[in-house]
Amino acid sequence: MIKNFSIKKGLFAIAGLQIFLTLAFLLYLISFNTYQSYNTATNRYYQVGEQLLSTAESMIGDLENATFFPAQLYTQNNDSYLCRTLREGPILKNYRFYSYFNTHAQSSLSSDSVSFIALYDLEQNGVVSSRKEGYRIVFLSDDTPAWYQELSQYKTGSTLLIPANEFSGSGYNQADCRALCVARGVVDLNTIKIVGYCVAGTNTDYLDHRFDQIRQAPNQKYALLKNGQLLYSTMNNPPPSSLIPGSPFPDFQGRKLLLDKGKGYVYNTISHANGYCLILQTPMSDILGNVSSIQFFYTLIIGILLGLIVFLMIRIMKKILSALDRLIDACNRFEPDQGVSVSPEGLPLELSTLFGSFNQMAERIRFLIQEVLLKQQQQQETELQLLRTQINPHYLYNTLEIMHMKAYAHQDYDVASMAELLGQNLQFGLRNTAKEVSLREELHQLNIYLSILSYHYGDRISAKICIDDDLLDCRILKLVLQPLVENAVIHGIYKSDQILNIEILGYRTEAGLFIQVSDDGCGMTEKQLQELMQNIASPSSDSIGLRNVCKRILLNYGSEYHAQIQSKYGTGTTITLHFPWNPFHQKV
User: Fold this and answer.
1) In what order do the strands lie in the sheet with 159-162?
2) Is 491 helix (H, G, I), strand (E, B) or coil?
3) What is the mean pLDDT of residues 225-241?
4) pTM above the 0.70 mark?
């Protein structure tokens, strides 16, 4: 026994010595290869930085050219419509202006580096044109953004470069804090005065996508600066000030190794004389991951050592597997209506603890299954109760028919007509069980509802529907327009002599079908709008109609399609519904 124990000690000592010598030699090879990889990799990073910096400079140049297009219309085409309209007053609800702007702005969006172009009048009303969405009406936030305040101080058409994290409050949520922008004042050449502001922007995804194509390390990040000002960064923290070249800005390339919270990072700095600077941040772990593979001979030695370890592990695993067989057998014998347990007798402490936990889990699962079965039984009873209560709406519809005939017989034609219209409205919701109808049918039902409102409000509600016939066969959810018009009437009319104008606009883009319901009612403040959005998202919301519409669009079509709410106090409210393009004659 003593002899066997001594032999084991000797074998373990020899194996330990071999492992030590192997690891020492491997450490030398890894250190040498790491140093070579570090120099090679960091030199390649300068090429990546130069390419990305050139892309950024070209992109910003395209943005500057894009902001010139209102002036170019006048100087090249002698077309002064945009400037003249901006000079004459606010552009709010000037749909001809919006369409005209969108048509000419699309030519400037032909470059992939320009994501959108926005035009604002001097009263902070604006319109945005993008390649994917067409045009959109926007308003600056109630708290005038800092970039707009700075731009309004300019008396000439000088450009303002807006960092991505400072571009906010534009009214175009897709770009706020996510777009690098160039802005300039629109100069009316007749009066030589600023009549508006043009903003061109690029979503930062454009630079990120370009960087992903040329990056040399998986966790590499970058920061773009101009004259020392940070324009955009993918780093978790701003780049250290010691890496930014001082003014005047030279053509410069530099490399530094710095520590941040115990982790090493290599920073490559590339700057140009025009003030643009790019800083690449590369974790040392990425560089070390590029170390060359070790020669086959040393790999064979490691393989033998690993083989020995595997042999020992197999012997240990056999003991563990025999214990797991008990556990698997217990799982196979598990039944919801009776308990099951595994005896931990004769097992190591760790496995005994595991088996004890299994016994507790099995008992808990049995309890939960019984609880689920009970809930299913309760749900079936609830569904039966719901089926019994469905007779009530049919009773209400039949009662309205009786009221209609009775009123007609007594020559009370207004009451008869109202009962008939209300019956048709109720019938649409009861007898047509399909969740989708054509836009044509939905508009017909909306006209019935507007006819009912006319009995109470008379000529105080003016509704205009501007939708091309080509869009009327598209499928949309049933009863989505009536709740929006109802909200506009209830919350938009605040004076007894007020005339409420409601406009329903429909248009189609590559993204699908859009329907806008706009009113010129009292509108909402920014705080009221935020409270409404939170109220809609709450399960206990009292905004039943609007929450119902938003929730149904989300559940039926997914998060890509949604309802967007824009409102300005004293101006009105616009709700835009987004549906997929799916006409009835198209195969689903």
Assistant:
1) 134-139, 125-130, 116-121, 193-203, 179-188, 159-162
2) helix
3) 91
4) no
